[in-house]
Design a protein that fits this description.
globular; 284 residues; four-stranded parallel β-sheet; single chain; disordered C terminus; alpha/beta; 6 strands
Length: 284
């Protein structure tokens, strides 16, 4: 049998899975290291300005794959932001037999960034009553941003709300507002299929606590942690900044692909007894 996934920002893992007998349909949003090529970039950007459209694109890939491989048990894998797409896709497509959350966030993006910054300050012993008030104010600003309510003129002076300077720009606001309105953990809790959470414990982009939060949302999900790996499952030393960790150019640790392949093969062997379980698409 052949088992099929799609990944984003994880081309080495896709190749590693292929070497283990896993057929991979992979697609990615544009960005450094994704391998994606954008044709007519300006026109494409105008066409896809809202987060739910990413789910629609995933459905197109799913439909294509089901036509080509109608009898193959398949799982959907999403990396980082794509894990949110994977959960939304799986909710409405029960032919998907399993969901893999690869470095998936448990909080909306802006809140995730602010919370991780606040927790970093707390671990360093730098949290004061004033800093706590600023953090709480930033969370309220994010709610106002999602609801299109006016923001304080001095919002950029809040150390946890600086990302809003980018978010409120006309070219970014529609997409980020629609993304921020989705609660990743709450959506993951709605997934009825078996799920596997993969997390590097030195991930400086999506902190390991997100795996714990996702597991609390869906307690029947399995969790596999990799102590020395960062966001793209590359080995890194302790203490790197997020920028340094993100910039690593080494290959993804093959142990991650091995764990994914074993889980998919076990899951698909079970699903093979049900002919209605077939096809897959995925995101990021």
């Amino acid at each position: 049998e052949i088992y099929t996934l799609s990944l984003h920002d994880a081309l080495p893992i896709s190749l590693q899975l292929a070497s283990r007998g896993i057929a991979v349909l992979r697609y990615a949003k544009s960005g450094p290291g994704t391998g994606a090529v954008v044709v007519n970039k300006k026109e494409a950007a105008e066409k896809y300005r809202m987060f739910p459209q990413r789910v629609r694109v995933a459905e197109v890939f799913l439909s294509e794959l089901r036509q080509r491989m109608p009898a193959v048990p398949c799982s959907v894998a999403g990396h980082s932001e794509g894990a949110v797409v994977a959960t939304l896709l799986a909710q409405s497509h029960k032919e998907i037999v399993g969901v893999l959350m690869l470095s998936g966030p448990a909080l909306p993006l802006l809140r995730l960034l602010a919370t991780q910054q606040f927790e970093s300050e707390r671990r360093a012993g730098k949290v004061t009553a004033e800093l706590g008030r600023q953090y709480a104010a930033a969370l309220r600003m994010f709610e106002d941003f999602v609801a299109s309510r006016p923001l304080p003129e001095d919002f950029a002076s809040n150390p946890f709300a600086g990302v809003l300077s980018f978010a409120v720009a006309p070219d970014h606001a529609p997409y980020l507002r629609s993304l921020e309105s989705v609660d990743p953990a709450a959506e993951f809790a709605k997934v009825t299929q078996p799920a596997l959470i993969i997390q590097g414990e030195r991930d400086a982009s999506v902190a390991p606590v997100n795996a714990e939060m996702l597991h609390r949302a869906k307690p029947d999900a399995q969790v596999q942690l990799f102590p020395e790996l960062q966001h793209f499952y590359k080995k890194v030393p302790e203490g790197l900044s997020p920028q340094e960790s993100f910039a690593q150019t080494s290959e993804s640790d093959p142990a991650v692909a091995e764990a994914i392949a074993n889980w998919i093969m076990q899951l698909s062997a079970t699903a093979a007894g049900f002919p209605e379980l077939r096809g897959l698409a995925a995101r990021e």
